[in-house]
Sequence to fold (494 residues):
Amino acid sequence: MKTIITSFAVLLSCIHFLSSQNTWIIGYDTTAINSGGGTSISFMGASTPPNISYLQKQMDILNCPAVLDDDMGNLQFYSNGCYVSDANHNKMPGSDSLTTGQFIDVYCDQGLGGLGLQTTIALPAVSNERYKYLFKYNYKFIAQNGGDIRGVELVYCKIDMDGNDGLGEMIERNVSIVTDTFPTGYLSAVKHADGMSWWLLAPKSSSNTYHKILLDSTGIHYMGAQSIGRVWDHRDWTGQSTFTPIGAHYLRHSNFNKLNIFDFDRCTGNLSDPIIIDVENTDYAAAGVSVSSNSRFAYVSTFSNLYQFDLEAGDIEQSKTLIDTYDEAPFPYYSGFSLSALAPDQKIYIAGTSSHKHLHVVNSPNEPGLECSFSQHGLDIPSFNFAGIPNVPHFNTEELDCLPSSNSNIEATNIECILFPNPVEQGQDFQLNIKGIPIREEHEVRFYSSSGNLLESHSLSQGQITISTTSWPIGNYYYTIYPVKDLAGKFIVF
Fold:
């Protein structure tokens, strides 16, 4: 059985990292809706409770703001897509009216805090810490389905942090990357396999097409589009997308278009092996998805229910566990489950669906089922919030090797790798044989879970190896032969 999988490099990481975005800015104040007010949440570390304070600011935020810290964890700027606020909460020079046309009047000047959910995201330049980028959509009304709002262009804005006495100045604005129709959300980013560059995914509206953008040391590059998986209908204006912290999977969830799980190749930016799960039959629009810091458990919310899925299970759909049902607490706690995010304290915070002064909290998201310790209304905040949770990527995802490997001159074309039996029953031994190359001392086989966690590595000096699955849970697994180019495979423990 010859098994050559060129996208296997996404699985070659085993250390779980968290976002280094220490400061979250969310919310608005209904007593001064046109003059800001909100909440600052500052995360000190994995074991320290966050510092929460009321924040008097100009910007209203009803969506997912883009927020960016410096390398020391100090707030640099944030944006709701209408303009950018600096660390002193003043409007950054050059960032006026980032949203154009009628949307300025409707969504910005009226104090509505911008348009859409995951419609902005901020990333640092790769080669020069002086520069930062804000990615966003430009919008227009589309004459379909009763008059939808759609993004019609993905653009970037460039910020010079040396400008304005070190508070930042926008020096480029609304520079076009790609023109198409986009939903009002689902703009997500993940580290490239090199550990420095960034991939951005921007789905095309009402389709199964995903635009790929690469930010590397030479700038911003449009890398084409890929069509794969479920064709989404026009109700793609609500929901959420995210990458696992390890970067091996991309998840996108909407109550109207189901939970979509893909393998993701951080070397090529390609999606593969889509899994589509019908989470719940509901007409509610609110939906969210986030993943635990160990990249194993996905937390998927509808308006009324929060579910956990095990991404390492042999059958992910069958792993669905109901964590809790919305308790319908009275105002100001009245709000179901909406967007969510993994924070630097390793907890997952979930925003509500209407004006609320709390966040729901998954206290131990790395634990299975009800052991995750979910607390409705678990974090009080001093200002009103509305569905907003920061749209921030995982900044410390580990660097990994891409196949073909630069340190090997061995090609996999004439190499045969035989694993038997496959599938293998839990507790049973299986054998792996490799033929077609002279086995050297440095050859080894590496086994990974489906979420990319390294389980075992063994020398292949004899050309074969016998492995026991006694301690391996039922599920999907992968292996790679190091340092052979492109030689990898998949097997199942049942």
User: Anything to note?
Assistant: Confidence is low (pLDDT under 50) at residues 1-19, 403-413.
